[in-house]
Structures are given as structure tokens and as C-alpha cells.
Amino acid sequence: MATNAELPLVDISSPDSAAAAKSIRQACVDHGFFYLVNHGIEESFFRQVFKESSKFFSLPLDEKMKLGYKNHRGYTPMFSETLDPASEVKGDLKEGFYIGPAKFSDSQVDANQWPSDEVLPCWRATMEPYYEKMLKLERCINPWHLYDFCTIQVEILRLLTMMGD
Question: Is a pLDDT exceeding 60 seen at residue 4?
């Protein structure tokens, strides 16, 4: 398994999208992960996202469970998801928080679950723009534009923390 230093960097600033796609493919085949560079999103914004994410995952379990997973959004506790049920007895060593499009299906109600401003005053103000920036970035690097064939927006962003982080 690759360490942080060994993960490939994929530069998406080049107008040669075929080269970027080839680099992404090779990184996924060789490592399973990669870093995108020159994507235009400021490092200070990522620091804010990590800060808010850390605050959320540091909350007591009962506070996080108020936002328990429903409608493909919200909090999933440690061991509640299993990547490989055939080989895992206890579940994955991670907690997660799922964020999706503000409007889901024909509903005018935001399906996302947000911590109250009293608990995490900057959470929603950070995570909504983060979701939008990641969606824009995905559409920039996805040359197939498969989302053009969808009648509803379905992209889900997962924030994760692993045991020991």
C-alpha cells in the first residue's frame, strides 16, 4: 500500500484532458488513490473543511446520532458500514457524514442534515460550498459527462474519519 509520499500527483491545469485522464486511470490502477493538484481551490479552504470536519467527529456520539443516516444523508457511526461483509465481522473502522444536493428529487426540502448553529456555527457555511466546489471539480475531470443523462442530481460527498486519525 502506498504511503502519503508515494501517492501520485495528477495535474489538472493542463488543457490536455486525455493526459489527465490517463494519469488518473494509472493512479487508480497502481495505488487506488491520487492527489489532484492545480485545481484552483485554495489551501486555506481545505484547512477550514478539515477543521470543521474534525470538530464534528469530535462531538459526543449522542450529538452525532441526532443526524443519523437517512435519505442517503447524515452521520454513520464507527463499524456501521462494511465494505466486504464476507471478510469483515465488525464493520469498517470509520465514521462518515454524507452530504448531497440541496434539492433531492421533486422535493423542495433540503434532504441534508445539518448540525445546529449552536453546536457547530460554521459547519453548514463551510460544507455547502465544499460540496459545490467538489461537484464542480468532479465535472471538470469527468470527461464523459454522465450526469447529463441523469434526471436528478445524485452526487453524494462523504466526509470520513478513520480510527486512529
Answer: no
